[in-house]
Fold each of these.
Amino acid sequence: MMKACELSQQALVYAGEVLKAGMSTYELDRHIHDFIVKHGGKPSFLGYHGFPASSCISVNEELIHGIPSKSRKIQEGDIVSIDVGAFIDGFHGDNAYTFTVGEVSEETKRLLQVTEQSLYKGIQQARKGNRIGDIGNAVQTCVEEAGYFVVKRYIGHGVGREMHEDPEVPNYGKAGRGVRLVPGMTIAIEPMVNQTTEQVRVLGDKWTVVEGNNKMCAHFEHTVLITEGDPVIMTLTSH
Ligand code: MG
């Protein structure tokens, strides 16, 4: 599984490197697809419940599950969330990052910083003896203290032989509640944060989820291993 997570991470890093203004989200997805296949993996998302691409690429007010498209051109000032998983040797990895293209506003930068920070606050709670609610509570507290909104309709998940497994990993909750964390569990923690509302809408393509008021939103994700000691971020292996 470490291998799958490493490939997932490398694909995401590579996507960030090739991402540039003028490129279509379809083109970016092709780069991601080819990278994973070239390294012996299979894109986890391709064909998942009929999903037609190898990554989810969500721009600006799009939160998650954006379908790569030839007509969607990335522009200077956009924020681009890329969510990608790789399957290799029987296991999946899963990770996401929201990139900036050129200059974005200070407010948007702050939204991205807070969302990424909330991911790490959640990861700090992913330890033996804690419960799922400790993770969600840490994420929610970080986000709400900054004045933003946790999306509750979509949540993190266990990950392993299947891309989505138990337990559910909400980005909200009460400390000390929920499934107890035990060494060996592997979970995807993925805060999804809106600027102005916890509401979201699903577009007519049946996939793309957007911020309820069409404002900015952000998404960061790591696959994390519960151990006897500190959590191990499996999709952060190159340093
Ligand atoms: Mg995920």
Note: Helices lie at 2-18, 25-38, 106-124, 132-145.
Amino acid sequence: MNTRAYATENKLSNRWLVQLGGVSLGVATALLTGALNYFEYQTAEDQYSDHLTDLSLSITAHAQQSLYSANVALEGIYSELIERRFSSEEDFKAYVTRPSEFSSLNQKINSNPLIDVATVVAKDGRVLNFTRSYPPPPINLGDRDYFAWHKNRIGSQTFYSQPVKNRGTDKWVFYLTKRLDDRNGEFLGLVLIGMSVDSFSSFYKALFSHLGSSARIALYRDDSLVMTSWPLQDKIISKVDSKMVNQLSMSSVGGMPKTFITVDADLNETSDSQIKRMSAIGYVDGYPFFTSVSIGSDIFLQNYRRFLTYSLFAASAGLCILVFFIRQFLKKDRLILNEFREIKLLQEELLSAKEVVDTQNQDLERRVQQRTVEIAEKHKSLVWSHSQLERANRFKSEFLANMSHELRTPLNAIIGFSELLHRRTFGPLNDKQHEYVGDIHASGKHLLTLINDVLDLAKIESGQIALDSSTFELLDFVQTTLILTRQRAERGGLKIQFSVEGEGRCVADKTKLRQVLLNLLTNAIKYTLPGGVISLNVFVRSDEIQFEVIDTGIGIAEDQLVEIFDDFRQVDNILNRTTEGTGLGLAISKRLIEIHGGTLKVESQPGVGSRFYFSLPQQNG
Ligand code: ADP
């Protein structure tokens, strides 16, 4: 039991070790997956950071070239008009409103598809000539920002206006503008080059549409005013992008564009969902512009997300397996714990059972001791009773022996004298006297037989009888014995026969053996009806001699077979009422055979006959 409990405990601690190992493995896998994810994320960022830097450089270069070519066109128109050194406003207007000026303007911008329009404006804001149509429709641009800017600012600086929606075409345009003065420095008007916001946007689209729906590209004025963008959205064009004001601080000023990550509203959506972006800002060298290009995490984390999906899948599969195993282990642990508990319960039950058994044992021991004392006392009293009985028996035997002796003396006188009288030795007797004297003689003899038998029995019981063994010839012995009975048998009309099988010498007390055989033969004669057969058979064997007396007499009932060996036992039958007997013959015979070391037995069937038999053991050699 203890070994089992120990093994269970051992199993239990092994389980915990395995579980600890499983959990450690799980944690290690989680850490590894986390680390791999982190590195993969970093790699993805680095990769796209480089890519985005390249993109930023491209659009910055594109913006620079576009602005440069627009400036070339602006400079061309401006310098031609300045060189004219107009003396008055009238000169100026007369010159610029000519049809040839319309052609000249068109010529200067034709080669540049980004330039939407070239315009010459009077100092009151009225369009004097422009490339769209000739003569120009009556348009006044006096309310435009560039007009206000140049009006009070003397000099040849180029102003980059905010984008405005063309009133005729409904398209966004921003302007590069220069102030025109006459030879005296008086303000004449402005030269404008309108750049198509759409064209920029289309260019961006053509180049960068593969960057996904969340990609954004924009060109900003240095005050974060949105000049153009892709995707093009009316709501952001010509507005200051407040986020960009903040983001500028994140990027380097001048030099190589630097990427950074932001999380802000997805401008494509009407919803206010947040989107993670990677952005790069590039400064347009020589112009007060900068570009911004940003892509959504759907693009720059594309590979990482794929990796993440796979790794998450692998991790969840691993987790499932781990959970499964841990559950299995826990289940088994629960089973083992239950077993452990059961064993403990069993142990407790056994202990209490042992206590009960111990108590019972003690009780039993006490009772055995008590009983032993009782038995010892009983034994003592039995021994005492036995000795008393033996004593009484001895007294009885002694008394009988003495009494028999005392009785036999007068009885012999009675028998002797009655026999003499019966023979009429002392004179004649009448018939009655002769009959009575005969009865006295017969009764005396019967009494003597009885006394002799009682005496024999008493001697045997008191242990006074001793065997007087000798070796004698069997055949001779059997024949002599039979002679003593032959007469009586013949008188009863019976046939008597004998057989001796084997070489026959016998060692026994000859007198006592003869007494037994005579008793058996006499009984056989007594209890067999005339015409019957009596047999005395002897079988000599290596270590014993068997004697049997068989008759074809009346037999004995089965329930009386045991009783016939008892003292004074006479079975009531039709013959023993008429035959004389004492009921002691078989009792004495049985004891005499027992003294010789044998046993007297009987087999009988009423109406068929009886067989009395016994064996005398013989010493070999
Ligand atoms: P008894 O002097 O009456 O013969 P035994 O002790 O010799 O006394 O025999 C006891 C009884 O056993 C007899 O009374 C008789 O009924 C029965 N008995 C003995 N021998 C035989 C026999 N050969 N056949 C039938 N009955 C027998």
Note: The longest strand covers residues 274-284.
